[in-house]
């Protein structure tokens, strides 16, 4: 069998050089990719989730980014760039909204924590401002031990700690530091 000519060897040499150079990875690039993409984390952008019960929409969650940690031991959905929730009543009307700059939902415990500039506002003129709010989905209780400003139709209440049911019908500031009437009766 005749030996291959020099024209055949040149493309073979270029192919071999290409394959060898393509297999070399820069360790810094590999480390950056590993930091950016964790194997047990799904990243979603422009998130809009709809939660329903008995064929009725209960909550719509929108967020710029969601990190979904799929490891069963640490399963959670984290919203590092903030989130906006819209709650609906039985008639499918908006009952309240909540915004925060960070949030997390732990699937195993059914607990939700929102932090940083938390504002909850209802259509019946209640507004809560705090730095952290926790909701236990199983018990239906909302609580915080942080400073709160609770505005109701007749009063502005400030203090530390808050407990409420998830419908926010029985909100109670635990350590009241101020209570300001908003609708003072006019002097005769």
Overview of this structure, please?
The protein has helices at residues 6-22, 27-36; strands at residues 41-53, 56-69, 76-79, 83-88, 94-100, 102-106, 111-122, 127-136, 141-151, 155-165, 172-181. The termini are far apart. The mean pLDDT is 83. By secondary structure, the protein is mostly beta strands. The chain is built from two helices and eleven strands; from the N terminus they run ααβββββββββββ. It has a six-stranded antiparallel beta barrel with strand order 2-3-6-7-5-4. The longest helix has 17 residues, at 6-22.
List keywords for this structure.
single chain, 188 residues, 2 helices, mainly beta, 6-stranded antiparallel beta barrel
In short:
This protein is mainly beta and about 190 residues long.
């Amino acid at each position: 069998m005749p030996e291959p000519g020099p024209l055949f060897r040149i493309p073979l040499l270029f192919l071999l050089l290409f394959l060898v150079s393509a297999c070399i990875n820069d360790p810094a690039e590999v480390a950056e990719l590993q930091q950016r993409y964790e194997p047990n984390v799904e990243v979603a952008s422009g998130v809009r989730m709809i939660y329903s019960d008995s064929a009725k929409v209960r909550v719509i969650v929108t967020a710029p980014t969601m990190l979904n940690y799929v490891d069963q031991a640490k399963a959670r959905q984290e919203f590092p760039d903030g989130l906006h929730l819209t709650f609906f009543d039985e008639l499918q009307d908006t009952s309240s909204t909540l915004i925060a700059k960070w949030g997390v939902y732990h699937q195993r415990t059914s607990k939700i924590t929102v932090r940083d500039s938390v504002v909850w506002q209802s259509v019946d003129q209640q507004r809560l401002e705090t730095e952290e709010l926790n909701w236990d989905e199983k018990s239906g209780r909302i609580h915080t031990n942080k400073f709160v400003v609770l505005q109701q139709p007749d009063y502005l209440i400030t203090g530390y700690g808050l407990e409420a049911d998830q419908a926010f019908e029985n909100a109670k500031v635990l350590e009241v530091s101020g209570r300001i009437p908003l609708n003072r009766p006019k002097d005769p």
